[in-house]
Amino acid sequence: MSYDNPTSWLSPEFWANIWRGTITWAVQALPKVLIVLLLGFVLLKLVNWGAKRLVAHTSRQSDATNEAAAREHQKRAETLVGILRKSAVIVIWAFVAMLVLMQVGVNVAPLIAGAGIVGLAVGFGAQELVRDVITGFFVLLENHVRKGDVAVINGTGGLVEAIGLRTITLRDLSGTVHVFQNGKISSLANMTKEWSAMVFDISVSDKEDPDEVMEVMREVGENLRAEPSFAARILEPIEVFGLNSFEENSLVIQARLKTIPSEQWNVGREFRRRLKLAFDARGIERPVRSRALYWSDSRDADQVPRPEPRRSEPVRTSARGR
């Protein structure tokens, strides 16, 4: 039968041949296609099951007595396992697609060769993408940052919501999402790796006894650490470094509290609240900023006497006008 004749497409013999070919393919190739799809589905389930088991195994292997260390191990495991799972899913679907094409009669050898050539061309044209992937691989390998950390990338801080081979996603305190290409990260600061700390620069009046102020700070820190709700968050007793600097009418005393990751802000807020109440109870004064203003007629400005500043007093600012 000639297929060049348009009427042949409407003949019963043509449709009979189509039907016999379809039945032959369904008998010979369709079971193989279904088996390939079923194997792909099973492999995907195994990958997801293995990823969950690997995260659970890593969590069990961590130090159960150290909550901070356990959380660090879990975050790292979730980040690495997530990347491996995504890579495995891509590879599985690629093999399933090639096997299905082979079963339907498509020669995949030219496709593979063409894909290699296209990949080479894309590699030359997508150097930035290659750089992002390579940088992301080493960021994950060297454990610089993980999902759930609080980091500052290129001057922007936020919670790491997602990390991959190409990009890192941050969400700042206002809810804004920032996406950074791994290859364009020039600076990365992880604020919650293994442990965190809140540094306090406490200013008090220069008339106060610095030893008494430091003793009050230690008492407040120890009382805060003794409470059950904060005992698990604070890793070490408060460190009072001492008198850090002299400022105008004030003394600056520096201290530090080490906490588990991401808890330094909550602990710091509560410490400042309690320290304010303790200072009020002990009568410890905060520094008062003073400024003197002199008003005069601009015509007599040159005749207005100006007091000379003394070393023991802060320099006063003079403002003139009507």
Would you kindly provide a written description of the structure presented here, covering whatever features stand out?
This protein is α+β, with helices and mostly antiparallel strands. The protein is 49% helix and 17% strand. A 5-stranded antiparallel beta sheet has the order 4-3-2-1-5. A hairpin with a 2-residue loop joins strand 7 and strand 8. The C terminus is likely disordered.
Show the helix and strand layout.
Elements: H1 12-28, H2 30-61, H3 67-103, H4 108-125, H5 127-141, E1 150-153, E2 156-163, E3 167-171, E4 177-181, E5 188-190, E6 196-205, H6 210-226, H7 228-231, E7 239-247, E8 250-259, H8 264-282
Antiparallel strand pairs: 1-2, 1-5, 2-3, 3-4, 6-8, 7-8
Helix pairs in contact: 2-3, 4-5, 6-8
| Element-level helix/strand string | HHHHHEEEEEEHHEEH
CATH topology name of the largest domain: Helix Hairpins
Question: What is the CATH C level class of the largest domain, in words?
Answer: Mainly Alpha
- Helix amount: 40-55%
Mean pLDDT: 78
Give, in spatial order, the strands making up the sheet with the most strands.
4-3-2-1-5
- Biggest sheet descriptor: 5 strands, antiparallel
Unreliable residue runs: 310-322
The figure for the number of domains is 4
| Termini gap | 111 Å
Structural class: alpha+beta
The radius of gyration is 35 Å
Percent strand equals 15-25%
Looking at the overall shape, the CATH architecture of the largest domain is: Orthogonal Bundle
Number of helices: 8
Question: What is the 3D shape?
Answer: elongated
In total, the number of strands is: 8
